[in-house]
Amino acid sequence: MPPTDRVLVFDTTLRDGEQSPGVRLSLREKLEIGHQLVSLGVDIIESGFPISSPGDFESVNTLAKELHGVTICGLTRAREKDIEVAAEALQPAERRRIHTGLGVSDNHLEYKLRMTREQALELGIKAVKFARQFTDDVEYFMEDSGRADRQYVYRVVEQIIAAGATTINVPDTTGFTYPNEYFHLIKGIIDNVPNSDKAVFSCHCHNDLGMATANTLAGVMAGARQVEVTVNGIGERAGNTALEEVVMALHIRSDKFDATTRIDTTQLLPTSRLVSRLTGMVVQRNKAVVGANAYAHSSGIHQDGVLKERTTYEIIDPHLVGAEKSEIILTARSGRHGLKHRLAELGFNFTDERFEEIYDRFLEVADTKKEVGEDDLRQLVG
Ligand code: KIV
Ligand code: ZN
Question: Ligand 2 centroid vs 168 CA: distance in angstroms?
Fold first, then answer.
């Protein structure tokens, strides 16, 4: 169990993230990302789904051998064969976790699993007991918890903890819930399940309605102490909760949370760039925390503010996430202060009169372009 003020970061970039359409990572690439996740300071790396293919088995097994100071986790269905294979793949790990589970919503039970609630619960209990023979660190996922009947969820949690699960994953698999609903889902479990103090509750949210980060943070507010996240938020469909967003929200808004992570935030940008390069998933420019525009200012009013005092428009110091500095981007909306600053950066200082001439020419050029770059500025000043 983590201390009450610690939120464990469970990174699933290599499992749920790799499920993004179009993404395929080689073993060497997974290992490179795995090493970077260790430098970042994540607590658990979900490295794959060992029974799904020989390649996935090999990646989980290799990461289990090569990575130190972190728990390596493998995903399974609630089946003995899956669990045996995962246990074998995880065998060399310093610390290993088996992540097993089953759907809990009536939708999944009826259409996907074709089982009654009782049958599914019985299978889940068996799977947890079986997994406990290989490790005392067993996580149980209740797939589609976000759309499940609350009373059934409470019953599952109680019996699954009694069977030996140490972490209970509460996935909003379809990204259906809103933050207040997810808060009450987690809080309801903690308050209503008699043995809830015997497990860590984990938030695993998908981003179908753009709520993944907000839901995860709501879960932490309700008492969850593990977050399941991916770098850059990559994952099935609209993706998973973005690691960098949750970590920075907990850091910057520490007034709202009584819990922190052990992430080295200066590794966030290098990790984001590595994952983007190796997966080919481009990070949108305006992406929170790690987007190219996240510390860039283009309007005259904003540039004037940040040049006088950074905190006027920036709540995150770029150094904190491993970025070099804030940027002043010159566009037709920029003002004198921004232009003077960029010219000074290039080593140009002018009298007021000469500067006014340059500024007029700058506006003419800026009206014809998206951005006035360094070469344009050099031409402008002759
Ligand atoms: O979204 C989900 O429910 C999952 C589980 C397999 C944990 O990814
Ligand atoms: Zn998922």
Answer: 14
